[in-house]
């Protein structure tokens, strides 16, 4: 399911869309209630040039590059630095020049705006309030950005936990797009 209008997207944007869809589906196979997950995104063509042995390990890669010069690989980042908040985690990330983009997958609870009016200011009480709210919605947000600008997002709700019911678009989660893009700034 795509939420975009009639604007034509570049092949690079469409490739990033496919990459974030694959990442979100990969994470979804592990179920819900998982921690934030971070992925480096590299261009397959450059990965093959710098590590030719990848062609033997993953024989489909050269054909992918031949079919699409923007083909991308995602590599999950293990051993993330300890962080108490998502903001702290993102603030601790830095990428070498060989990384062309990054993706983040995080789960959140959303409630209608009117429900936030009665939310307690104490963080622990607010969490309980959200967890017990009858109109709460669990969502998985997957965001990918490229160093040179394009971004793409995928949103899945727990209520409609189906790969055909994932919303896709370049700016569905603008705050996370901006925060992830900032990890590439010097």
Folded structure, characterized:
The protein has helices spanning 11-28, 44-50, 54-57, 61-67, 86-92, 123-132, 174-181, and strands at 37-43, 72-76, 101-110, 137-146, 151-157, 167-169. The radius of gyration is 18 Å and the shape is globular. A hairpin with a 4-residue loop joins strand 4 (137-146) and strand 5. It is 33% helix and 23% strand. The protein is of the alpha+beta class and 186 residues long. It has 7 helices and 6 strands, in the order αβαααβαβαβββα. It has one domain. Strands 2-1-3-4-5-6 form a 6-stranded antiparallel beta sheet. InterPro entries: PPA1309-like.
Strand content: 15-25%
Distance between the termini: 36 Å
Number of E-type strands: 6
How many structural domains does the protein architecture include? Answer: 1
Mean pLDDT rating = 91
Walk across the major sheet and give the strand order. Answer: 2-1-3-4-5-6
* Spans where pLDDT lies below 50 across 5 or more residues: none
Radius of gyration from the alpha-carbon trace, in angstroms: 18 Å
Decide which structural class fits the backbone.
Answer: alpha+beta
- Main β-sheet description: 6 strands, antiparallel
Helix and strand string, N-terminal first?
HEHHHEHEHEEEH
**Tally of alpha and pi helices:** 7
What helical percentage do the residues reach?
25-40%
Which overall shape is indicated by the principal axes computed on the Cα atoms? Answer: globular
InterPro entries: PPA1309-like
């Amino acid at each position: 399911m795509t939420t975009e209008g009639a604007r034509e997207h570049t092949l690079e944007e469409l490739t990033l869309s496919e990459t974030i869809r694959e990442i979100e589906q990969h994470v979804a196979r592990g179920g819900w209630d998982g921690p934030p997950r971070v992925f480096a995104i590299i261009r397959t063509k450059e990965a093959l040039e710098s590590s030719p042995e990848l062609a033997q390990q993953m024989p489909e890669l050269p054909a992918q590059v031949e079919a699409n010069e923007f083909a991308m690989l995602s590599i999950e980042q293990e051993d993330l630095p300890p962080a108490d908040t998502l903001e702290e985690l993102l603030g601790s990330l830095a990428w070498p020049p060989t990384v062309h983009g990054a993706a983040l997958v995080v789960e959140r609870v959303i409630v209608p705006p009117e429900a936030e009016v009665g939310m307690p200011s104490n963080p622990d009480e607010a969490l309980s309030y959200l967890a017990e709210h009858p109109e709460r919605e669990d969502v998985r947000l997957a965001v990918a950005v490229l160093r040179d600008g394009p971004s793409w997002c995928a949103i899945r709700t727990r209520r409609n936990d189906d790969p055909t019911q994932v919303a896709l678009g370049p700016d569905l989660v603008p705050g996370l797009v901006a925060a992830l893009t900032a990890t590439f700034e010097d």
